[in-house]
Amino acid sequence: TTPLPDLVIVGAGLFGLTIAERCAEELGLRVLILERRHHLGGNAYSERDPETNVEVHKYGAHLFHTSNERVWEYANRFTSFTDYRHKVFGKYQGQVYSLPLNLALINQFFGKSHTPDEARALIAEQASEFDTASASNLEEKAISLIGRPLYEAFIKGYTGKQWQTDPTELSADIITRLPVRYTFQNGWFSDTYEGLPTEGYTAWLSKMADHPNIEVRLETDFFAVADDYKGKVPIVYTGPVDEYFGNSEGRLSWRTVDLEESVVDTDDFQGTGVVNYNDGDVPYTRIIEFKHFHPEREKTHLPGKSVIVHEYSRFAEEGDEPYYPVNTADDRAKLLKYRDLAAAEPMVLFGGRLGTYKYLDMHMAIGSALSMYDNKLKPHFAEGAELKSGGIDA
Ligand code: FAD
Ligand code: UDP
């Protein structure tokens, strides 16, 4: 029989890879990662399209951005980043606008030029219909922030498609802060650091696992081999928390996205990486054109062709990829029960997007894994502290 590893990690996404790298590199532990897909990297995985040589993000467009110095320094140990700055445009009734809501969009939408002060006054007047503090649903909150005309053009249709739910039925806190920029600045993110991994996501993520103490076992479902490890060796589990407990408290609800990929016969389909479709009656939410994420690779792409993806959002059924937690009151009640179960599960730590039922950006997944390493794994393995699950955050 093969000796047990020091630590088993379920899931080779950014959370699991960060834990594995730290434990192998800094503590010298022998780490086994079990991954049920045929590749590592989790949802950040990408591959070159064989026909066009364009890098395609297989689980939806992934843009790296962070203001966390430690996460930025850590990520840069495994890859450099390009100087790509993400921009998003929105199509509405045959016109294309520059998002997020900014002075260019306001001027174009209302058909006249406004100074920043004039635009502020205009939006304040249009937003006076509802009070932000007492807004009881997403629609009221959005109108209280940006006014009804901009809400109806850019939020109502898009949000309805994204959530398959009328915005008056959605919680106000989905749109906690809907920024309007009274400048022409149209960068999508406001973080200190931003860029795409120079050699692609898969090169980055593979490098994290490239260590003699780390073994990645692909196409291996943890539940098929759980008896070999449960209770025998510490486990960091980054799969869905409800699945771990056999859905005993009911399934947590997720949204999934159908990604319809196609190769089109043109050098340039839309002139930019992401165009949102804000009209409610267009069935998809947005179109991604991947080559625009790497303009520096232009010469390596097959001329005359481009890879695009139409995104369609819907509720996830059993067997679909869980992408975004829906997080209804019912889900939150179930999550509290799973949290108690997780806290009582010996030698298992729950982490990552699926393990905590939280939407985590990549930098948050890395940051949260570094915290778990500092606060739980390192004290246990280096100082003999008891391994306390502490459950999952609700
Ligand atoms: P995951 O990447 O989901 O990895 C979990 C892994 O566990 C998976 O590989 C899964 O196969 C495996 N697994 C689950 N159960 C088992 C089991 N029983 N046995 C074995 N293996 C198992 N973040 C950004 O910063 N910028 C973006 O632009 C961005 N865009 C996104 C777009 C979409 C559509 C989605 C869904 C996410 C996006 N993210 C983005 C978030 C990013 O994908 C997450 O931060 C990241 O995936 C979190 O890593 P993770 O390790 O927690 O989870
Ligand atoms: N949203 C919108 N119109 C847009 C873009 C976003 O109404 O053009 C709203 C929508 O409710 C969405 C939320 O803002 O769910 C977050 O949008 P983002 O593009 O950040 O979502 P993600 O990329 O995570 O799907």
From TrEMBL:
Q: Which domain of life is it from?
A: Bacteria
**Where does the signal sequence lie?**
none
> Any idea which UniProt keywords this protein has?
FAD, Flavoprotein, Isomerase
Query: InterPro entries in the record, alphabetically?
Result: UDP-GALP_mutase (IPR004379), UDP-GalPyranose_mutase_C (IPR015899)
Example GO molecular function term? UDP-galactopyranose mutase activity
- What positions does the domain UDP-galactopyranose mutase C-terminal occupy? 153-359
* Cited Pfam families: GLF, NAD_binding_8
Which Gene Ontology terms of cellular component type are present?
Answer: cytosol
Name the coenzymes or cofactors required: FAD
Is Flavoprotein found in the keyword set? yes
What family, per the record? Answer: Belongs to the UDP-galactopyranose/dTDP-fucopyranose mutase family.
Protein name per UniProt: UDP-galactopyranose mutase
**Record organism:** Nocardioides exalbidus
